[in-house]
Design a protein that fits this description.
alpha/beta; Rossmann fold; 8 strands; 19% strand
Length: 214
Protein backbone atom coordinates (compact mmCIF):
# COMPACT_ATOMS: atom_id res chain seq x y z
CA UNK A 1 0.00 0.00 0.00
CA UNK A 2 1.24 3.45 -0.95
CA UNK A 3 -0.53 5.94 1.32
CA UNK A 4 -0.51 9.59 2.24
CA UNK A 5 -1.00 10.45 5.92
CA UNK A 6 -2.95 13.65 6.52
CA UNK A 7 -3.57 14.72 10.09
CA UNK A 8 -5.01 17.85 11.61
CA UNK A 9 -7.57 19.25 13.99
CA UNK A 10 -10.22 19.35 11.23
CA UNK A 11 -12.18 21.81 13.32
CA UNK A 12 -14.20 21.40 11.16
CA UNK A 13 -13.09 19.62 8.00
CA UNK A 14 -14.12 21.64 4.93
CA UNK A 15 -14.19 21.60 1.15
CA UNK A 16 -10.75 23.19 0.98
CA UNK A 17 -9.23 20.19 2.76
CA UNK A 18 -11.05 17.81 0.42
CA UNK A 19 -10.08 19.61 -2.79
CA UNK A 20 -6.43 19.70 -1.82
CA UNK A 21 -6.13 16.05 -0.83
CA UNK A 22 -7.93 14.95 -4.00
CA UNK A 23 -5.33 16.89 -5.97
CA UNK A 24 -2.40 15.41 -4.03
CA UNK A 25 -3.76 11.87 -4.37
CA UNK A 26 -3.92 12.26 -8.14
CA UNK A 27 -0.53 13.95 -8.40
CA UNK A 28 1.30 11.20 -6.51
CA UNK A 29 -0.92 8.24 -7.46
CA UNK A 30 -1.52 7.20 -3.85
CA UNK A 31 -3.56 4.07 -3.28
CA UNK A 32 -5.19 5.86 -0.40
CA UNK A 33 -4.99 8.92 1.81
CA UNK A 34 -5.60 8.31 5.50
CA UNK A 35 -7.04 11.24 7.43
CA UNK A 36 -6.58 11.23 11.19
CA UNK A 37 -7.98 13.94 13.48
CA UNK A 38 -5.81 15.08 16.38
CA UNK A 39 -7.21 14.20 19.78
CA UNK A 40 -5.20 16.71 21.84
CA UNK A 41 -3.24 18.97 19.46
CA UNK A 42 -0.25 20.20 21.48
CA UNK A 43 0.13 23.45 19.51
CA UNK A 44 -3.51 24.57 19.61
CA UNK A 45 -4.54 24.42 23.27
CA UNK A 46 -6.82 27.49 23.20
CA UNK A 47 -8.68 26.70 20.00
CA UNK A 48 -12.48 26.59 20.05
CA UNK A 49 -12.18 22.85 19.58
CA UNK A 50 -15.08 20.48 19.06
CA UNK A 51 -14.68 17.16 20.82
CA UNK A 52 -12.34 14.66 19.19
CA UNK A 53 -15.24 12.27 18.61
CA UNK A 54 -17.31 14.96 16.89
CA UNK A 55 -14.39 15.93 14.66
CA UNK A 56 -13.79 12.26 13.83
CA UNK A 57 -17.46 11.91 12.90
CA UNK A 58 -17.31 14.96 10.63
CA UNK A 59 -14.21 13.69 8.83
CA UNK A 60 -15.81 10.26 8.42
CA UNK A 61 -18.97 11.83 6.99
CA UNK A 62 -16.95 14.06 4.65
CA UNK A 63 -15.10 11.22 2.90
CA UNK A 64 -17.63 8.38 3.17
CA UNK A 65 -18.47 8.57 -0.53
CA UNK A 66 -14.93 9.30 -1.76
CA UNK A 67 -12.99 6.34 -3.14
CA UNK A 68 -9.45 5.97 -1.87
CA UNK A 69 -9.86 8.02 1.30
CA UNK A 70 -10.01 6.50 4.76
CA UNK A 71 -10.27 7.81 8.31
CA UNK A 72 -8.34 6.62 11.35
CA UNK A 73 -9.01 7.20 15.04
CA UNK A 74 -5.38 6.38 15.81
CA UNK A 75 -4.79 9.56 17.84
CA UNK A 76 -8.06 9.25 19.72
CA UNK A 77 -7.06 5.80 20.97
CA UNK A 78 -3.75 7.07 22.38
CA UNK A 79 -3.62 8.97 25.67
CA UNK A 80 -1.92 12.31 26.00
CA UNK A 81 -0.99 14.96 23.40
CA UNK A 82 -1.16 13.96 19.72
CA UNK A 83 2.47 14.04 18.60
CA UNK A 84 3.03 13.34 14.91
CA UNK A 85 6.15 11.22 15.38
CA UNK A 86 4.25 8.85 17.69
CA UNK A 87 1.44 8.55 15.14
CA UNK A 88 3.86 7.74 12.32
CA UNK A 89 5.48 4.95 14.32
CA UNK A 90 2.05 3.58 15.24
CA UNK A 91 0.95 3.49 11.58
CA UNK A 92 4.16 1.66 10.69
CA UNK A 93 3.57 -0.85 13.49
CA UNK A 94 -0.02 -1.49 12.38
CA UNK A 95 0.55 -1.79 8.64
CA UNK A 96 4.06 -3.26 8.60
CA UNK A 97 7.05 -2.76 6.34
CA UNK A 98 5.12 -3.64 3.17
CA UNK A 99 3.32 -0.28 3.31
CA UNK A 100 4.86 2.97 2.13
CA UNK A 101 3.76 6.20 3.76
CA UNK A 102 4.21 9.88 2.93
CA UNK A 103 3.41 12.58 5.48
CA UNK A 104 1.29 15.39 4.02
CA UNK A 105 1.80 18.79 5.63
CA UNK A 106 0.50 22.25 4.86
CA UNK A 107 3.29 24.78 4.47
CA UNK A 108 2.39 26.50 7.77
CA UNK A 109 2.70 23.18 9.61
CA UNK A 110 5.97 22.39 7.85
CA UNK A 111 7.52 25.70 8.90
CA UNK A 112 6.36 24.96 12.45
CA UNK A 113 8.13 21.57 12.68
CA UNK A 114 11.12 22.88 14.69
CA UNK A 115 8.72 23.13 17.67
CA UNK A 116 7.50 19.54 17.25
CA UNK A 117 8.49 16.56 19.34
CA UNK A 118 11.48 14.75 17.79
CA UNK A 119 10.90 16.50 14.49
CA UNK A 120 14.22 15.33 13.05
CA UNK A 121 13.09 11.71 13.34
CA UNK A 122 10.15 12.44 11.03
CA UNK A 123 12.58 13.03 8.17
CA UNK A 124 14.47 9.87 9.13
CA UNK A 125 11.29 7.83 8.91
CA UNK A 126 9.29 8.77 5.81
CA UNK A 127 9.07 11.20 2.86
CA UNK A 128 7.28 14.49 3.43
CA UNK A 129 5.06 16.31 0.94
CA UNK A 130 4.59 20.00 1.72
CA UNK A 131 1.37 21.40 0.28
CA UNK A 132 1.88 25.00 -0.79
CA UNK A 133 -1.46 26.63 -1.57
CA UNK A 134 -2.03 28.92 -4.51
CA UNK A 135 0.65 31.36 -5.55
CA UNK A 136 4.08 29.93 -6.07
CA UNK A 137 6.45 31.69 -3.68
CA UNK A 138 9.42 29.90 -5.20
CA UNK A 139 11.66 27.25 -3.76
CA UNK A 140 14.07 29.58 -1.95
CA UNK A 141 12.11 29.93 1.35
CA UNK A 142 11.86 26.14 1.57
CA UNK A 143 15.52 25.65 0.72
CA UNK A 144 16.60 28.13 3.41
CA UNK A 145 14.32 26.58 6.02
CA UNK A 146 15.41 23.02 5.26
CA UNK A 147 19.06 24.00 5.37
CA UNK A 148 18.68 25.79 8.71
CA UNK A 149 16.12 23.64 10.54
CA UNK A 150 16.17 20.13 9.03
CA UNK A 151 19.61 19.30 7.62
CA UNK A 152 22.30 21.00 5.60
CA UNK A 153 22.66 17.75 3.65
CA UNK A 154 19.53 18.29 1.55
CA UNK A 155 20.04 19.17 -2.12
CA UNK A 156 17.49 20.30 -4.67
CA UNK A 157 17.13 17.47 -7.19
CA UNK A 158 14.56 19.04 -9.50
CA UNK A 159 12.13 21.93 -9.37
CA UNK A 160 10.38 20.74 -6.20
CA UNK A 161 12.19 17.80 -4.59
CA UNK A 162 14.93 17.96 -1.96
CA UNK A 163 16.98 14.79 -1.52
CA UNK A 164 19.44 13.66 1.14
CA UNK A 165 21.89 10.77 1.37
CA UNK A 166 20.49 9.63 4.75
CA UNK A 167 17.08 11.28 5.21
CA UNK A 168 13.91 10.91 3.17
CA UNK A 169 12.94 13.31 0.37
CA UNK A 170 10.97 16.49 0.97
CA UNK A 171 8.68 17.40 -1.92
CA UNK A 172 7.00 20.78 -2.40
CA UNK A 173 3.60 20.40 -4.06
CA UNK A 174 1.82 23.51 -5.32
CA UNK A 175 -1.83 22.72 -4.69
CA UNK A 176 -4.91 24.69 -5.81
CA UNK A 177 -5.75 27.73 -3.75
CA UNK A 178 -9.17 27.21 -2.17
CA UNK A 179 -10.00 30.14 0.08
CA UNK A 180 -11.77 28.30 2.88
CA UNK A 181 -10.53 27.93 6.44
CA UNK A 182 -11.86 26.30 9.58
CA UNK A 183 -11.50 29.63 11.40
CA UNK A 184 -13.66 31.32 8.76
CA UNK A 185 -16.33 28.64 9.16
CA UNK A 186 -16.38 28.87 12.97
CA UNK A 187 -16.65 32.66 12.77
CA UNK A 188 -19.50 32.47 10.30
CA UNK A 189 -21.38 30.08 12.59
CA UNK A 190 -20.86 32.41 15.57
CA UNK A 191 -22.23 35.28 13.48
CA UNK A 192 -25.25 33.30 12.37
CA UNK A 193 -24.12 33.20 8.74
CA UNK A 194 -24.52 30.30 6.33
CA UNK A 195 -21.67 27.85 5.75
CA UNK A 196 -23.38 26.23 2.77
CA UNK A 197 -20.83 25.35 0.10
CA UNK A 198 -17.91 25.60 2.53
CA UNK A 199 -18.33 22.12 4.01
CA UNK A 200 -19.99 18.94 2.69
CA UNK A 201 -23.75 18.92 3.25
CA UNK A 202 -23.61 16.06 5.75
CA UNK A 203 -20.94 17.92 7.75
CA UNK A 204 -23.11 21.04 7.76
CA UNK A 205 -26.03 18.95 9.03
CA UNK A 206 -23.86 17.42 11.75
CA UNK A 207 -22.66 20.84 12.93
CA UNK A 208 -26.19 22.18 13.04
CA UNK A 209 -27.58 19.07 14.79
CA UNK A 210 -24.83 19.09 17.44
CA UNK A 211 -25.00 22.89 17.77
CA UNK A 212 -21.22 23.21 17.37
CA UNK A 213 -19.14 26.41 17.32
CA UNK A 214 -21.87 28.68 18.68
Amino acid sequence: MNAGLFGGTFNPIHNGHLGIIKYVKDQYAFDTIILYPSALPPHKPNLNLASARDRLSMVTDAVKHMNGFHVSDIELRRKGPSFTIDTIFEFRRIFGSQSRFHLLLGSDAFFDTPTWKQAYHIFETLPVIVMQRGKKTGIKPFASFIDEHVSKGYKLKDDNTFVHDRLYPIRICNVPRIDISSTQIRNRIKSGKSISGLVPENVETFIRTKDLYK
